[in-house]
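Narrative progress, year one. The postdoctoral researcher (J.K.) led the effort to move from monomer predictions toward full complexes, under supervision of the PI. The following entry was the first complex the group processed end to end, covering 398 residues in total.
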Amino acid sequence: MGLLGNAMKTFWKFGFHVVSMGDLVRETGVSRGGIYSDYSSKRALFHACIDHYEDVVIKPVFAPVEEAAAGVEGIRTYLEALLTRFDTNQNFGRGCLVGNTFTQLAEGDDETRQKILRFYARRTCSYSNALSYENSSNNRLTEADVEGLASYVTISVQGLWSYSRLVQDSSVLRQYCDMLLAYLESHLRGTPRSNYRTV
Amino acid sequence: MGLLGNAMKTFWKFGFHVVSMGDLVRETGVSRGGIYSDYSSKRALFHACIDHYEDVVIKPVFAPVEEAAAGVEGIRTYLEALLTRFDTNQNFGRGCLVGNTFTQLAEGDDETRQKILRFYARRTCSYSNALSYENSSNNRLTEADVEGLASYVTISVQGLWSYSRLVQDSSVLRQYCDMLLAYLESHLRGTPRSNYRTV
DNA sequence: ATTGTACTAGAACGATCGTTCCACTACAAT
DNA sequence: ATTGTAGTGGAACGATCGTTCTAGTACAAT
């Protein structure tokens, strides 16, 4: 799996401050010298892990949202994949590496903070595109409404990831996803507003 | 403000692992000996801080949800109070002490984990009671639906607290609350389902 | 065969950690 | 006036931290 992958897993599970270089040496199988020849510091390695996390963990599972014609179904596919992970993978109980990180940001660590902000901005932008596509069929919502809905999804999914770290089985998470998706559909797929007004 | 209050603030802002005993001495104004005469360890102090947090931070602002006839309005009042805090207080940017903590739980720290689980169980139970009261006027939802809705609120509010740590102004949080409350109302206050079926 | 590269295990560095201890002070109770 | 209590500032403890360094090994390229 490699240095980066194993380091990512370790940070993901325990958090930056809890993980020591000794832990990393043990979990990655790479010596101290080997780690420091590739990364200048524990923090630099951690930043690389965040990038790696977005590439190998988030990107594949998030891909359905980023398709041109994603719509609510794209978001549904994403959430289904998340729930499957929670059920079948060893990833259950870890939450989201990025989401975990910003609850333990040291003051003044603006580089990490900016990294995280950009991460969430990309998610929200993708949600916005997906929902905008869905909305384009009947234009029930204004663009501002779609943006608001996209932020709603970002924050809700943050809650979902967080909570997945705490609970033991995924049924409550599954129910949460169903309700979230029903909410999106009720906003986007219901009878267009104009019909309500003119009838 | 006292030892407990200042220690709580410090842990809240930076997280358990980042805060050192030296930080606590500086921030609380109490000497090392003074702290250790009251609490057996840093961890014991932290646990006391979580209890103190629930008492002095959560309980007052959460009270409207726990009233007998809370309903969705009780939850609205709670969320409004949260948003006001985010806007006016120095608490902005800290998130929730409990929510922050479980993203950085060390493996095997079951005592803290149980503390956190109980915290969220109490929130969900209160939401359930509040929503059950609202539902009692028309019994639109089953008891199981009300439970599901209560979990939905718990997870959503977790997302809200988390995200409050990241964003700079509260407008996106305010919008989130409005949408969440509208969702609750649409489930509880709409025309009873039986009407849809018989008409 | 030699050189260079990449890596290893682990010693060692200074710093800081949580914790304990000590001598001392302030002050209320007797 | 004496005692007891509670707390102070700060030294000191062993442990562990992130980081650097050294000596040695494996192996591909020349």
